[in-house]
Amino acid sequence: MEHAQAEQKAAVECGYWHLWRYDPRLEAEGKNPFQLDSKEPDWSKFQDFLKGEVRFASLMKQFPQEAVELFKATEENAKWRLNGYKRLASQTY
């Protein structure tokens, strides 16, 4: 737990996790209530982040070939989610 903030920062920087806010009061002002706060991720750090997580590292040890495929799918899903968040943030109200 002592490294939780550093781990959270790494998750955001690599694109594993995205920062956003939703304030429904903004809609009454004619503004988009969804705001994406994350910067564009450094996708080159994504796989290293996964390998640093115990749950993913243990998967890599037990099932290396399946883990490679799942790691790729996880990265693609993170990119898909980010694109969805970008669409939400760009909507006009």
Provide the spatial order of strands within the biggest beta sheet: 1-2
Give the number of helices: 5
- Report the average pLDDT across residues: 95
C-alpha Rg (nearest Å): 16 Å
The count of strands amounts to 2
Helix/strand order, N-terminal first: HEHEHHH
Beta-strand level of the residues, as a percent range?
5-15%
Largest sheet: 2 strands, antiparallel
Percent of residues in helices comes to 55-70%
Terminal Cα span: 41 Å
Taken together, the total number of domains comes to 1
Helix/strand-derived category reads: mainly alpha
The low-pLDDT segments are none
Shape: elongated
What descriptive keywords fit this protein?
93 residues, mainly alpha, two-stranded antiparallel ribbon, 5 helices, 2 strands
Would you write up a description of this structure?
This protein is mostly helical and about 90 residues long. It has one domain (about 5-90). Helix content is about 60%, strand content about 5%. The chain contains 5 helices and 2 strands, in the order αβαβααα. It has helices at about 5-15, 25-30, 45-50, 55-60, 65-90, and strands spanning about 20, 35. It has a two-stranded antiparallel sheet with strand order 1-2. α4 packs antiparallel against α5. It is elongated and about 55 Å long. The mean pLDDT is about 95.
Nutshell version of this structure?
This protein has 5 helices and 2 strands. The protein is mainly alpha-helical and 93 residues long.
